[in-house]
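sorry for the late reply, my laptop died twice this morning and i had to redo everyting from scratch. anyway the thing you sent over, i finally got around to it. pasting the sequence first so we're on the same page, its 301 residues, then the predicted structure underneath. double check i copied it right bc i was rushing
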Amino acid sequence: MTDLDTTVVTTVTAATVSIGRDGRGSGVVIAPGFVLTNAHNLRDRSTQVGFADGRHAQGTVAGTDADGDLAVLAVETGDAAPLDWAESPPRVGQTLVAGAAGGLHHRVTVGHVSAVGQAFRSGGGRLVQDAIEHTVPLARGSSGGPLVDLAGRLVGINTHRIGHRFYLARRGDDALRSRIEQLRAGQSVRPRRLGVALAPNDIARGLRRAVGLPERDGLLVRGVADGSPASAAGIREGDLLVSVGGHTVTSIDDLARAVDTAATAATADANTMAIGLVRGADELTVEVRFDEPVADSSTPQ
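ok and here's the structure:
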């Protein structure tokens, strides 16, 4: 190894932690007193965190974003120095280094960026975009660990393997870093759910055509949960959802993005959003209200 390689290995190893007594996952020190990991590594509101110097400490959940597969733990990080964020986006062919401590053994591995701008679905089914695909080998228990450049700067957070020796990581862009700061502040992200069962656009168009209604792009409501925000707003089975907050929706991913965008818009009442519907041949707009904000200070169970 060159001197640079040795420095990077030392830096990454010191900032990488194990998550859970069984080392089921990894994490990274992002600030004094805080560790970032994947939400899927958590089992409870507290968990054991293991450091490279052999020390173990009990961490408590500061905030979680289940749809983004992110969690920040508050824990005594001691002398473990946080990693700095890389300022430049990763490029295809760039050499990257991964740190992992899952399985209770610290590892450092090297590979390359194979693709950028990738997407994957989180455990909650949401589409996570702009991920990094890479070839840095990751053993079991590596998810949640850091992915860094050759200067030891944090490029992303590893999430999972996708087969054929390829892996995905959440890219450390401005949006991710902003969300992490939100979690550090104790604001867990609660995804908004309308409470509807939906048929996709192609089926909706076919069903409307079959009953003699004009074809229209949108999502057909096949069911409405009792007591849900959709039910309270008067959305009915058979309605066609065509827009959320002024954004056209023709797929489930469109709907999720539109709901998230409306939730974070600077409006007088961020807990209320307009849903455009087609009921039969009539166009109408309903106001859907969510009882809880997207981010709050409680920890999801």
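Confidence is low (pLDDT under 50) at residues 294-301.
thats about all i looked at so far, will dig more tmrw
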